[in-house]
């Protein structure tokens, strides 16, 4: 009898351990995902359509984290404080070249700048100001969001095309994207590279003009995209596919013209701006190009990184295809009918 009780006790303990292990195994994976610009980055729009994210709360949870620019995301990735980074091409190059993140992988598109007739970031100056051509910026102050960002690289490429170099010919200051308008209006800076949705502000349109675009500076760019560490992908591949399946469903919803009104309402609510600010351009050809299957343009990204090398921000040429894993979005797309 004592032996039988012992067997039952052992069995009960084994069942208990197994139950705890199963519960732990079933715990959703925590995904932390970064963003910089509201609405422009898909990160900010995903959780507004939770009903389309069938795996949310089951295989993963999602926390969105705001950064002023993409360079600080490198530190967050290295410290294990971020799983999915919404990087600019410039930050991707720095992470691979200088931060020792050789296992960093491009996994999905966010948005592309200057594709065909789609939107391109704008170099803005005052309409009634003294700046009429790029050469007029000699000795002036130029605002970018963060040094080393995609906007910074594009600005320096534009200035170099016109014979102007940082420190020698102009001064660069950092200004958060929402504050670019005020900085120009108060004449604290002479030019700023600004982005959607801020360039559609009526104050901007009425008081400023476009001196040049980012496309003028560096051509089409894979400006913003999602990246993750290779080790993390390998350990959590199934969950990442679940997440990217959900993300594709949300992205396709927003890009469908029949859902334009709801998309505008969501964007207005998120940013506490009137819907009119978004209605004429959001997720149309007046917006950035966004691939509905989240497929990035690796050729454009390669050209962007080559420009970064030419400007001296990185020291070696990076082969984009060697640092890409598109199998996740490809597998996710197969699930969507």
Could you report the average pLDDT, rounded to the nearest whole number?
A: 91
Overall geometry: globular
CATH architecture field of the largest domain: 3-Layer(aba) Sandwich
Task: Quickly count the domains.
Answer: 2
> Biggest β-sheet, characterized?
5 strands, mixed
Derived from helix and strand composition plus strand pairing, the structural class reads: alpha/beta
State the distance separating the first and last CA atoms: 60 Å
| Widest sheet, order of strands | 7-6-8-5-9
CATH level-four homologous superfamily name of the largest domain: Periplasmic binding protein-like II
The CATH topology assignment of the largest domain is D-Maltodextrin-Binding Protein, domain 2
CATH class of the largest domain: Alpha Beta
Q: How many beta-strand runs?
A: 10
Strand content: 15-25%
Instruction: Give the low-confidence spans.
Output: 7-11, 17-24
Fraction of helical residues: 40-55%
Write the H/E string, N to C: HEHEHEHEEEHEHEHEHEHHHHHH
- Computed over alpha carbons, the radius of gyration is 23 Å
| Number of DSSP helical runs | 14
């Amino acid at each position: 009898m004592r032996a039988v009780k012992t067997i039952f006790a052992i069995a009960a303990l084994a069942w208990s351990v197994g139950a705890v292990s199963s519960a732990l195994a079933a715990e959703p994976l925590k995904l932390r995902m970064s963003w910089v610009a509201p609405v422009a980055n898909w990160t900010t729009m995903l959780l507004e359509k939770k009903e389309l994210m069938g795996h949310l709360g089951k295989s993963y949870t999602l926390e969105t984290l705001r950064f002023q620019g993409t360079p600080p995301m490198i530190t967050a990735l290295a410290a294990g404080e971020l799983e999915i980074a919404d990087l600019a091409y410039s930050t991707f190059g720095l992470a691979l070249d200088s931060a020792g993140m050789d296992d960093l992988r491009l996994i999905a598109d966010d948005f592309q700048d200057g594709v065909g007739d789609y939107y391109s970031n704008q170099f803005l100056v005052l309409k009634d100001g003294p700046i009429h051509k790029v050469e007029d910026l000699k000795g002036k102050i130029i605002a970018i969001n963060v040094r080393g960002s995609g906007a910074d690289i594009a600005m320096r490429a534009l200035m170099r095309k016109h014979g102007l170099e940082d420190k020698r010919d102009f001064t660069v200051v950092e200004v958060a994207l929402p504050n670019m308008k005020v900085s120009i209006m108060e004449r604290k800076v002479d030019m700023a590279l600004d982005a959607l949705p801020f360039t559609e502000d009526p104050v901007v349109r009425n008081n400023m003009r476009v001196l040049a675009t980012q496309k003028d500076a560096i051509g089409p760019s894979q400006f913003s995209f999602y990246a993750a560490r290779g080790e993390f992908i390998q350990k959590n591949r199934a969950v990442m596919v679940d997440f990217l399946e959900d993300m594709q469903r949300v992205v396709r919803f927003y890009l469908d013209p029949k859902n334009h009104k709801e998309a505008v309402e969501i964007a207005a609510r998120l940013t506490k701006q009137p819907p009119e600010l978004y209605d004429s351009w959001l997720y149309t050809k007046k917006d950035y190009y966004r691939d509905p299957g989240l497929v990035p343009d690796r050729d454009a990204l390669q050209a962007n990184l080559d420009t970064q090398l030419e400007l001296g921000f990185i020291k070696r040429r990076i082969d984009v295809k060697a640092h890409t894993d598109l199998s996740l979005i490809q597998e996710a797309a197969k699930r969507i009918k």
